[in-house]
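User: Some background: our group keeps a shared notebook of sequences we're curious about, and every so often someone picks one and asks for a predicted structure to add to the entry. Today it's my turn. The entry only has the sequence so far, pasted here. Could you supply the structure so I can complete it?
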Amino acid sequence: MNRRSATLLLAIPAVEILAAAEARGQTYPARPIRLVVGFSAGGPTDVIARVVAQDMSATLGQPVVVENRTGANALIATEAVAREAPDGHTLMVSTLSHSVNAVLVPQARYDPLRDFAPVGLVAMLPLIAVTGPNTPFASPRALVAAAKARPGEITYGSAGNGGSAHLAAALLANLSGAEMTHVPFRGNGPALSEVMAGRVSFMFYPMIGIADHLSKGQLRALAVSTPERNPDFPEVPTMAEAGFPGFEQYTQGLGVLAPARTPEPIIGRLNAALRASLAKPETNQRLRSLGAVVAGSTPREFAAFLTEDLERWRRLISAAGITAEAN
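Assistant: Of course. Here's the predicted structure to add to the notebook entry:
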C-alpha cells in the first residue's frame, strides 16, 4: 500500500470479499456490535462512524451501534476498548490520537500496536490552512516570514493540545524553522472564531464546514494538506505547492480497530463489511461531503499504516518539543 495515498484501491470485488468472510465466520456476530468513538457526537469522526456503522449493520445482520465515550482526547475510550473481550463485539474508531496519546501521555495504559487488531482504514481527513480576512497573510510562506521576523508573535489556534490542528501547525513551524505560538481552545469552533476575528493569526482546520466561511469572505484559504489540489477548493494550492513538500504525509487517518487477539475470521468478516460500505457510491459521496477521502484497506495494510503513523508522529512530537501540556 502507498502509505499516504489519498485513495486505496479496493482491489477485490466487495461481493467476493463478503462471500469469503461469510464462510469463515458463520456464527459471528451473535449480538449487536459497539463501535466506540472517543469524541462527542456530531463531529466529523462521529458522523463518519455512523455512516459506516449503518452500512455494516445491514451487511453483518446485527446492529452496529456507535457509542460516544469522550474524554482526554480519546484516551479514555482507547484504554477501555483495549481491555474488552476479543470477540468482535466491541470495536473503536481510531484517529491520530491513537498514536499521539501513546507518545505524549506517559500514564497511557495501552500499546497502540500490541493491544489492538487492525480491521481497516476508513478515510483520510485532510486539513486546510486558513487566516482571517483582514490579516496580511496570503500564503504559508508569508506566515513563516512574519514569524521569523517577529519570533513568537504569530499565533495558531487548535481544538486542544495534541490534536490534528496543533500538530499540523507545529509541523509547519518545524519544517520552516520559525517560532510560532500555539493557542489551544476547547474545540475547533472557538478557535476558528478567533481566527476570523483576527485575534489568532491562522489555524489548520478540517475541510468539513469551512467552505461557507470562505464563500462569505470570513476567512482566507492559504493551502490544503492533500497531495493534489482538492476539487472543492481548486484555487487553493497544496502545501507542497506553497513550498512545504512532504506535509501531506501527516494527514490524519481514520480506521477501525478491535481488541488484540480477536480471531482472524472475525477480523476478515468485519473488514469485508467495512470495505463493502466504502465501495458504495452513496457512502463515498457522503464521506466526501464531510471532507474525507475514502481509503479502504486490508487489515495488513492498515497495520502497516499504524506502524508508520506511530513513528511519524513520534518524530514530529520529538522534533517540535511538544509535551502533554499545551505548548
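Suggested note for the entry: The domain at 14-125+252-320 is CATH 3.40.190.150 (D-Maltodextrin-Binding Protein; domain 2). The chain has eleven helices and eleven strands.
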